[in-house]
């Protein structure tokens, strides 16, 4: 039973991975990656790591891929030629590189001195890979990496907002004179998105032309 | 199932991702291929974790997931900024970092 499940999910994962690089439209690449991630989560379940599988589906296939879909539909993923226009030689070289990498990794895996690689794995202990065990490890042995990871996420969020924010402010008169119900209930210059990018200031005095 | 099967699948996915990074031109797809490579590494980590009956590998995999999420947010932010500035969205055309 485990073998059948393994082959179904492994074929799904590899097909998804091939789909990511073989499809012209980036939107379909994202969808192929979602299939790949879900198959991979099932492989994780076969390896008895329940928590990572759940996190993979919820965080990766759920949240990160939604971000991708938003950006692809914003930037407008148009059909494009798959291969680079740098010539046939480069493509052949990259095929050779990928094949050589795979052969080398396979030799390293199959010819390893580790006896356990060709075993079924360690005997299963109840609770292995459960959220309780992962949580205990994260809050005891791996507390420092856990905190560093949370800081990294904070920095990445701030960096993404800084990189992708709208720099020019609100330009058209309709945008500047847009009113909402909230304008009555709160005082001026207290934190709307429009004021954040300089909309309210422009109403009073025309700001100098910003360097783009 | 032998653990070597999982490791071979992981190696194959990693190579597909590396091939995609080398050949594709759209930075969005390059980011997707980086995700493929990180996920292949995750699969290998979890296979080793199961092999030794030790949960530490799963913690590694979770941290890799966090790093991948950070990379995605910053990378997509850069792509959106490129789109705003009408820079061609093509990794072959981009030759300098200075805005």
Automatic annotation (TrEMBL), chain A:
The subcellular localization recorded is: Cell membrane
Q: Where are the transmembrane segments?
A: 6-23, 30-47, 53-77, 89-110, 142-164
Query: Which InterPro entries does the record cross-reference, listed alphabetically?
Result: NADH_UbQ/plastoQ_OxRdtase_su6, Nuo/plastoQ_OxRdtase_6_NuoJ
Where on the tree of life does the source sit, at the highest rank?
Bacteria
Task: List each coiled-coil range.
Answer: none
Topology in the lipid bilayer: Multi-pass membrane protein
Record bears the keyword Hydrolase: no
Keywords annotated in UniProt: Cell membrane, Membrane, NAD, Quinone, Transmembrane, Transmembrane helix
Instruction: Give the EC number(s) listed in the UniProt record.
Output: 7.1.1.-
A Pfam match is Oxidored_q3
Q: Which reaction does it catalyse?
A: a quinone + NADH + 5 H(+)(in) = a quinol + NAD(+) + 4 H(+)(out)
Q: What does this protein do?
A: NDH-1 shuttles electrons from NADH, via FMN and iron-sulfur (Fe-S) centers, to quinones in the respiratory chain. Couples the redox reaction to proton translocation (for every two electrons transferred, four hydrogen ions are translocated across the cytoplasmic membrane), and thus conserves the redox energy in a proton gradient.
- PANTHER family in the cross-refs: NADH-QUINONE OXIDOREDUCTASE SUBUNIT J (PTHR33269:SF19), NADH-UBIQUINONE OXIDOREDUCTASE CHAIN 6 (PTHR33269)
Name the protein family: Belongs to the complex I subunit 6 family.
Supply the name of the protein: NADH-quinone oxidoreductase subunit J
Source organism per UniProt: Paraconexibacter antarcticus
TrEMBL record, chain B:
Location, primary (coarse class): membrane
Q: Which UniProt keywords are listed?
A: Cell membrane, Membrane, NAD, Oxidoreductase, Quinone, Translocase, Transmembrane, Transmembrane helix, Transport
Its annotated function is as follows: NDH-1 shuttles electrons from NADH, via FMN and iron-sulfur (Fe-S) centers, to quinones in the respiratory chain. The immediate electron acceptor for the enzyme in this species is believed to be a menaquinone. Couples the redox reaction to proton translocation (for every two electrons transferred, four hydrogen ions are translocated across the cytoplasmic membrane), and thus conserves the redox energy in a proton gradient.
Does the record carry Cell wall biogenesis/degradation as a key word?
no
| Membrane-related topology note | Multi-pass membrane protein
Q: Which reaction does it catalyse?
A: a quinone + NADH + 5 H(+)(in) = a quinol + NAD(+) + 4 H(+)(out)
Q: Which organism is it from?
A: Paraconexibacter antarcticus
Would the keyword Coiled coil be found if you checked this record's keyword annotation? no
Name the chain's protein: NADH-quinone oxidoreductase subunit K
Q: What PANTHER family would the database entry show? A: NADH-UBIQUINONE OXIDOREDUCTASE CHAIN 4L, NADH-UBIQUINONE OXIDOREDUCTASE SUBUNIT ND4L
What InterPro entries does its record include?
NADH_UbQ_OxRdtase_chain4L/K, NUOK/Mnh_C1-like
Molecular function GO terms recorded = oxidoreductase activity
Q: Where does the source fall among the domains of life?
A: Bacteria
Subunit organization: NDH-1 is composed of 14 different subunits. Subunits NuoA, H, J, K, L, M, N constitute the membrane sector of the complex.
Membrane-spanning residues:
6-22, 29-48, 60-83
- Give the Enzyme Commission number: 7.1.1.-
Concerning its family, UniProt says: Belongs to the complex I subunit 4L family.
């Amino acid at each position: 039973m485990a073998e059948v499940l393994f082959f179904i999910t492994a074929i799904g994962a590899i097909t998804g991975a091939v789909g990511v690089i073989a499809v012209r439209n980036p939107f379909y690449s994202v969808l192929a990656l979602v299939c790949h991630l879900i198959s991979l989560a099932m492989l994780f379940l076969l390896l008895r790591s329940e928590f990572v599988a759940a996190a993979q589906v919820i965080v990766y296939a759920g949240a990160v891929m939604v971000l991708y879909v938003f950006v692809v539909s914003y930037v407008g993923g148009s059909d494009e030629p798959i291969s680079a226009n740098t010539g046939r030689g480069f493509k052949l070289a990259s095929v050779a590189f990928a094949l050589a990498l795979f052969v080398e990794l396979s030799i390293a895996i199959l010819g390893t001195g580790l006896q356990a690689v060709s075993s079924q794995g360690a005997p299963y202990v109840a609770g292995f890979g459960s959220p309780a065990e992962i949580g205990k490890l994260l809050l005891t042995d791996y507390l420092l990496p856990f905190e560093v990871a949370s800081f990294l996420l904070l920095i990445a969020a701030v960096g993404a907002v800084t990189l992708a924010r709208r720099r020019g402010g609100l330009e058209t008169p309709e945008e500047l004179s847009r009113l909402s119900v909230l304008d009555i209930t709160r005082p001026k210059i207290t934190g709307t998105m429009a004021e954040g990018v300089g909309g309210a200031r422009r109403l009073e005095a025309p700001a100098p032309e910003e360097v783009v | 199932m032998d653990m070597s099967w999982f490791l071979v699948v992981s190696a194959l996915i990693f190579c597909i991702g590396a091939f995609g990074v080398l050949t594709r031109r759209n930075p969005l797809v390059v980011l997707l291929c980086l995700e493929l490579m990180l996920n292949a590494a995750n699969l290998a980590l979890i296979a080793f974790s199961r092999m030794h009956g030790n949960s530490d590998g799963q913690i590694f995999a979770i941290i890799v997931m966090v790093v991948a999420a950070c990379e995605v947010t910053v990378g997509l932010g850069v792509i959106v900024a490129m789109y705003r500035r009408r820079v061609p969205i093509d990794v072959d055309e981009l030759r300098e970092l200075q805005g």
